[in-house]
Amino acid sequence: MKVNGETILRMARKVQAFECTRDLFYFLKTFWSVIIREEPVFNWHIPYLCNELQMLGECIIRREEKPYDLIVNVPPGSTKSTVATIMFPAWLWANDPTLRIISNSYSTDLSEDHASKSRDIVMSELYRLLFPHVEIRHDSSGKSKYDTTQGGERRATSTSGGITGKHAHVIINDDPQDPRQAESEAYRRQAIERTKTLSSRKVNKRNTPMITIMQRLHDEDVTGYLLKRKGETIRHICLPAELSDNVSPDELKKNYRNGLLDPARIGREVIAEARIDLGSRGYAGQYGQNPVADGGNIVKREWFGKIPLAHFEAMRGHTPIHFFLDTAYDEKKESDNDPSGIIAVCKIQGKLYVYNGQKVYKEFPELCRFIVQYVKAYGYTGQSTVRIEPKANGVSIVQQLRRQTKLNVTRGQSPVDSKMVRLTAQSAKIECGRVVLVEGVWNDGFLDEVCGFPAKKHDEYVDVLCYAMSYFLDDNEYSPEELEELEYISNML
User: Fold this and answer.
1) Is-above-0.90 flag for pTM?
2) Which of 204, 213, 330, 366 is buried most, with the most CB atoms less than 10 Å from its CB?
3) 3-state secondary structure of 179
4) Rg of the chain, C-alpha, whole Å
5) Nearest CA to 467 among 492, 487, 485, 489?
6) Are 66 and 208 in contact (CB under 8 A)?
C-alpha cells in the first residue's frame, strides 16, 4: 500500500498532538517559539515543574478529588510564569476545552499579558492544526477573558480587581504581590485577602486546586499565610537560587550544580548584581526564598560611606545644598515631645552626601528662627530648597517661613507607608554605598538612631533620610528640577 506525503504529514501531526497532550514539557517545547523568540535554556527545574503541574492537571481533567494545593517558590527569571500561567492553561484545553480557569497576578497588566500569550498559543496555526477541536469564541476573545466554543473559560484578574460570580476548575495565583511593596503590611494583607477570595471561586472545593507560584517576599506574604493554615493539604516546592537548607523537597538538592539552581541563567554574576540591587533583605527573600521577618536592624553602620569635610567641600564646588526637616514639636509638654530633625544634603554623581544633621527641642517661634540660622550656616543659596514634611506643625512652619523669609520652602508629600517600609525600601541603596556622611561630631548620633531603628525611641533621622533618598535616588519620571516645579504648582493649588 502506498502512503503519500499528505498521509505521512497527517500521521505525524497526530503523533505530535498525542505527545503534547500526554506531556506538558513536550507541549512547552513545541509551542515555545510561538510566544518567545529567544532560544530556550531548559534547566532541570523546568521539566520538574511541568511534571508537577501535569500530575495536578490530570486530576483536574478527570474531575478527581485534588491531592493537594501547590505552592512553588522560585527566583525571578526562572520561567515560572511561562510554565504555570501561560503554557499550562493552553495544555489543559488541549486535553479538555470545557475547563474553566482563573489566573491572578498583582497587576492587571501582568495578568492580562500572561492570558494574552496563552491565547496567542491557542489561536496559533500550529495549535489549530494539532487541536482543531479547541476554538475560542469570536464574541469572547479579549485580553483578560475569553471562552471556548465548548464552554471553557479563561479569566485573568489582579489582586485589586474583581472576580464576582465566576468559578473555576483550577486557580493559578501567580505573583499575587508586587515585590516593590513587600514591606507594606497593607499590600500584604490585600494579597492575602485576595487569596481568600480566590479560594471561594472554585467549582468544587474538593476538586479545584489552587496553584500559588511566587518568590518569597516576607515572612507574612501569601506563601507564609498558606503554610500556616490548619487542615490544608499543601505540596510545597521551594527552589532558592543558591543551594541551602530551604530547598524542598530535600531530594532536589542533588540537582544543584556548583551550588546553583540554574547556572546558565541565574549564575554568580546575576546573583551578585541581585544582591546589590535588592540588598541583603530583598535578596534573601526573592532569591534565597528565606524572607527576613520584621525586627532587628534594617541597615548597618558599615554600609554608610564617610568623607572628610575638606574633601567634600573641594568636591562639591557649586552643587547646591538642600535641607530636609521633620518638625515634630506640638503642644504637648516638652518631655513628651519628639525633637525636630534636620539634615543638609546634596547629590553628586549618583550619591547622596549628608553634610550635617541636627535634632533640637524648640517651640514654634524658636524653631522657625533655628531653621533660618541652620540653613544659612550649612550652605543655603538661591538654588537650595528647604523641604518640610506636612505633619505636626510642619504646615504652619512652611507658611510662616514663606511669609517672613525669602527661603525656597516646599511642603513635602505626606508619606503613605510606615518608617519600617520606607527604610527597608531604601536599604539596598545604603548597602551599596550610595549614601555618604561628611565626617563630623553629629555622625555617631545619626548612625546610632538610623542603624538602631526600630529599637530606638526616636526616629527623626530615619524620616528625613528616607525623604531625602526618595527625592534624590529613586527612579523618577521627572528630574529633581521638574519635581520641584510640579510640587510648587501642587502646593499653590
Assistant:
1) no
2) 213
3) helix
4) 28
5) 487
6) yes
